[in-house]
Amino acid sequence: MSLSSREILSKAPVVPVLVIEDVKDAVPLAKALVAGGLPVLEITLRSDAAEESIKRIIAEVPDAITGAGTVINAKQMERMAEIGCAFAVSPGHSAGLLKAAADTGCPLLPGAGTPSEIMNLMDHGYDTLKFFPAEQQGGVSMLKAISGPLPQVKFCPTGGVSLSNLADYLALPNIITVGGSWVAPKDAVKDGDWARVTKLAQEATDRVNALRG
Ligand code: 3PG
Question: Subunit comment for this entry (predicted)?
Answer without folding.
Answer: Homotrimer.
